[in-house]
Amino acid sequence: MPITDEMIRQATCDLYDRALRKVPDDVTRAMEAAMATESSDTARDTLKLQLRSAELARERDTFVCSDSGVPVYFVKIGTRAPLDCDIKASIREGWDHLVETIEPPMLKHVTNPLTLERGFHGKDMPIVSYDLESGADWVEITCSPKALGSGRWAALELFTFPSLEEIETYVLDVAIKAGAQHCPPVTMGVGIGGSFDHAAAMAKKQTLRAIGTVNPEPTLAAMEQRLKTAVNALGFGPMGTGGDTTVLAVHVDYASGHGFTPVAVCFNCWINRRTRVRLYGDGRQEWSE
User: Fold this and answer.
1) Orientation angle between helical segments 218-232 and 164-178, nearest 10 degrees
2) Residues 112, 114: Cα–Cα separation, whole Å
3) Beta bridge partners of 141
4) What's the rounded Cα separation, in Å, for the pair 219 and 275?
5) What pLDDT is stored for residue 274 in this prediction?
6) Cα gap 188→177, rounded to integer Å
7) CA Rg value for the chain
8) What is the pLDDT of residue 146?
């Protein structure tokens, strides 16, 4: 039994819908843990308000944030997956169906950069990245709507044989420039090395990593902890109200490359919207965040 167009269309629709309505469990736990160590009364009250807004969205079955962002999907195709579908076309059709049927309706955030015309559709929408997974018999689709708060402050710089200190200084500079405009407490993703586009992709994917997971590379694990401490020491705090909780996690990945080393930094706002599903040919669906 193959994976069909209808399975892809429905998953595309359901993934986005779920991402808009629920704060991932690991994010909620991290925010609750931050309240126990937060030294600012105002920051603790802000964290409480954010968690309460997530609770109300769940109770009322509505969006956590009115900025529904633009559709961004990551697709992994197992090399042994039984396929009878046009994945690219089905994702586009699934997005079209969502726009027509979702309640409450979404605001028009898809923007033509040449004309500034806004709507729900446009060139290269939805934004989809593809990869292969050797030996897997499934198709995995991850949805992470990208909105203004988390998207505007991403940055990338190219270095030549940088030291770890130079890399960390740059990441901190990006965090300083962003301030609290990305709706903290955020998750930061950092990509080091590879090529220009690969570094940016690594950074984005690192924001999708579950908070609390330990980087298997000891050098990066230590870097993540140093950067988290340094960014939180900036004192921007939840939603810019001041305090110790500007970032919930800093996640870093790297790739080998040439003498030039791109370093990319991006953010997911406090909601950290992400949903994931694996589709199997026998009809099974495995959902996660």
Assistant:
1) 30
2) 6
3) 75, 277
4) 29
5) 94
6) 14
7) 19
8) 87
DSSP secondary structure string, 252-286?
Answer: EEEE---SEEEEEEEEE-TT---EEEEEETTS-EE
Is residue 145 within 8 Å of residue 69, measured between CB atoms? yes
Residues 253-285 as b or e (16 or more Cβ within 10 Å = b) = bbeeeeeebbbbbbbbbbbbbbbbbbbbbeeee
Separation of alpha carbons 124 and 151, rounded Å: 17
- Say which CATH architecture domain 3-22+64-147+273-288 belongs to: 2-Layer Sandwich (3.30)
| Encoded tokens for 61 | 């079955």
Please tell me the distance from the alpha carbon of residue 128 to that of residue 201, in angstroms, as a whole number: 12
pLDDT at 129 over 80: yes
The b-or-e profile of 27-61 (16+ CB within 10 A means b, else e) is bbebbeebbeebebeebbebbeebbeebeebeeee
Q: Chain-wide mean pLDDT for the chain?
A: 96
State pTM to two decimals.
0.94
Are 147 and 110 in contact by the 8 Å Cβ rule? The answer is: no
What's the count of helices (H) and strands (E) in the chain, helices before strands?
A: 8, 13
Q: What is the pLDDT of residue 150?
A: 75
User: What pLDDT, in 10s, does the model give residues 134-176?
Assistant: 999 999 999 999 888 778 899 999 999 999 999 999 999 999 9
